[in-house]
Amino acid sequence: GTSDTDPDAQYDFMVVSNRLPVDRCSSDEPGCEGGWRRSPGGLVTALAPMMTKTDGAWVGWHGAPDEQIQPFSHGGIDLVPVQLSTQDIELFYEGFSNATLWPLYHDVIAPPEFHRTWWDSYRKVNRRFADAVVHHASHGATVWVQDYQLQLVPKMLREARPDLKIGFFNHIPFPPPEIFAQLPWRKAIIDGLLGADLVGFQRSSDAGNFMRSARRFLGASVKQQQVHVKGSDGQTTHIARAQAFPISIDVQQISELAQNPEIIERARQIRRDLGNPKTILLGVDRLDYTKGIRHRLKAYEELLSDGKVTVEDAALIQVASPSRERVEQYRLLREEVEGTVGHINGTYDTLQNTAVRYLHHNYPIDEMVALYLAADVMLVTALRDGMNLVAKEYVTARTNNDGALVLSEFAGAADQLKQALLMNPHDIDGLKDTIMRAVNMQPAEAARRMRSMRKQILDHDVDLWSSDFLNALKEKVIRDDS
Ligand code: G6P
């Protein structure tokens, strides 16, 4: 443990995530300060005010291999970098995090690989993150650990520092015990998570899956949302609560951008550049096999070949941002998607119009909002997704209450956006019918649906998500030892 005289043990609030909320940049790029830029994404915006208010710090990896960086401050947030070696990146990050846990937790859409060397690295790197917190957290500090890359950290923290309040939030799905059972280290993972006082999930079904696994694999007793864990002395019990806290977006930021005249004009420009199709369909995803991009392309291609739409009627913009490019399954997916896009365009393009405008790029949020404004139909066809914030951003950007959202029931967002056109992306005929319903939707129905979805999101933005979680973390557990 740390002593109260340790000058580094200064933070009352700490967030821990695999990635720090900053990216490297060069000084001529906009927003670049001292070689770093704040990374996009709701988590950063949600937590930034809290961090400054409560003397907080963020612990995470800065994204470069082998580089050791001293703690520094950026945009008012203190950052504590954790180093990853080239080998850690290969075994802990690309291996155990992204080729074992990621596919296992997303319904084994791709086959998870189980390697003992990856697991050893996962444990070792989780220990390094925990050590950084132990060193920097003040007595009684609140620590909020994020996501599947760091599931062992809560238990490591509780053992080293029983004075801490420990929260954990899982941004991705938690699988049913029947699938989780495959993991050779299933007990250690559940045990690691149960070190937290509060374990948060996107959907209540994820929290339910976790509690069933705690019962099945650790023999824990579960009452309501409380998991009772026996200490190693067999005497004391620690209670971890499991609960859903659906994450959201920075509603104000997206609404403001959506009403900015320059961005509205940019949206018109995008439509002209595409040759003025009647309908623009849009997909925006990290290039990941969980997102159902192939299913979406297949449905669209069949609509073209059935003659239900032509390229003048309906063009598809697919933004696929580069992701995890050294992991085998991601390479395969990229080849397949790009082959399919080439095939569709070769078959259906004319000199004026293109069927699929495929963009393997990252765009700044302004350009994303312009795309949302240009799109008549948003396609979110994930085969499994913790939440899917693109769905929430699209709805928030549609300040005129027009446009249609086609949304997979396998995305967490489906629990909140009940007025979307919900569908099962595995059912290609159903997906095609739903796309046609969206394309042909009457303005009155579109407005009724969009208004109700917008209200849901406007009432539940990301500030509410983080304050709900942190308030629940403060609450005392109700002990019922009877
Ligand atoms: C998902 C995960 C995040 C992760 C992000 C990007 O949203 O929940 O933890 O940071 O994907 O993936 P990457 O591997 O590039 O960090």
From TrEMBL:
InterPro entries: Glyco_trans_20 (IPR001830)
Domain of life: Bacteria
ATP-binding found in the keyword field: no
CDD domains, alphabetized: GT20_TPS
Pfam families, per the entry: Glyco_transf_20 (PF00982)
EC number of the protein: 2.4.1.15
SUPFAM superfamilies named in the record: UDP-Glycosyltransferase/glycogen phosphorylase
Enzyme class: transferase
Molecular function terms from GO: alpha,alpha-trehalose-phosphate synthase (UDP-forming) activity
Sorted UniProt keywords: Glycosyltransferase, Transferase
Family indicated by similarity: Belongs to the glycosyltransferase 20 family.
Protein name: Trehalose 6-phosphate synthase
Naturally occurring in which organism (per UniProt): Arthrobacter ginsengisoli
